[in-house]
Amino acid sequence: MTEKNNSIFLSVVIPTYNEERRIGKTLVSVKQFLNSQNYPYEVIVVDDGSSDTTRSIIQIISEGWPHIRLITNTINRGKGAVVKQGVLNAQGQYILFTDADNATPIEQVSKLLQYVEEFPVVIGSRHCPGGKVHIPQARHRIILSRASNLLIRLLAVPGVWDTQCGFKLFERNAGQNIFANVQLEKWGFDFEALTIAAHLGYKFKEVGIEWYNSPESKVRAGREALRTLRDLLRVKSNLMRGVYSSTGYIHTFPITKR
């Protein structure tokens, strides 16, 4: 763990794996937006053992940008594992994780920040009121995605329209306590984190955001639908066995206002 710096308002965690075609444009957008805000920030990129030039691109962009940190792993573990790694290393009072393709433009974080004083967990949603999908997925992917989300609502997180959108904001104490309990290392970590949040008594708010489908998406809908069921069963088992603890990782220093 790194020593916490109370002056940082927002930490942005970005997981990467072989993102050489997209990460440069994303980081430029993130830098431009955050530099225009009136709060201190940091960007944490966690690379999940990329075998292409992703890390080199990040290192080039980081020159002269003191707000960015790169954490590199030698082996690929999965998105859930590296998001957890980034969240637990974050120093900001609030922690956002977002995808490397910038499918949800970084500017949308302003919508989530409106609710942080009341809700320790604020999640971006493509499907709740106010959400907008600008570039839709293929029809078969939409059907499988909605079917998976229905299953998630029934078995794990009732009332949430979109558990899998990669754009979620956490108050630091809540986020680090939740992610200290996350067990899934791959795709299912999103709904596991929300299940843990509900189990530990954290209130969360779903906020409609704008989202652009990436034609280069690495998610395979059919395979992920099968993984959803497997991961849901594991999460339910963890709940029944008392795996998720309320004392996983807690800080006691106060949150200062922006």
What can you tell me about this protein's structure?
With 258 residues, the chain is of the alpha/beta class. It has one domain: Spore Coat Polysaccharide Biosynthesis Protein SpsA, Chain A (Alpha-Beta Complex), CATH 3.90.550. Helix content is 37%, strand content 18%. It is built from eight helices and nine strands. It has helices at residues 23-35, 54-62, 79-89, 109-113, 139-155, 172-181, 189-199, 221-240, and strands at residues 10-16, 41-47, 68-72, 94-98, 121-125, 132-135, 167-171, 204-208, 210-212. The strands form two sheets. The chain has a seven-stranded mixed β-sheet, sandwiched between helices. Strands 6-9 form a two-stranded parallel sheet. Helix 1 links the parallel strand 1 and strand 2 (41-47). Helix 5 runs parallel beside helix 8 (221-240) and helix 6 packs across helix 7 (189-199). The radius of gyration is 17 Å and the shape is globular.
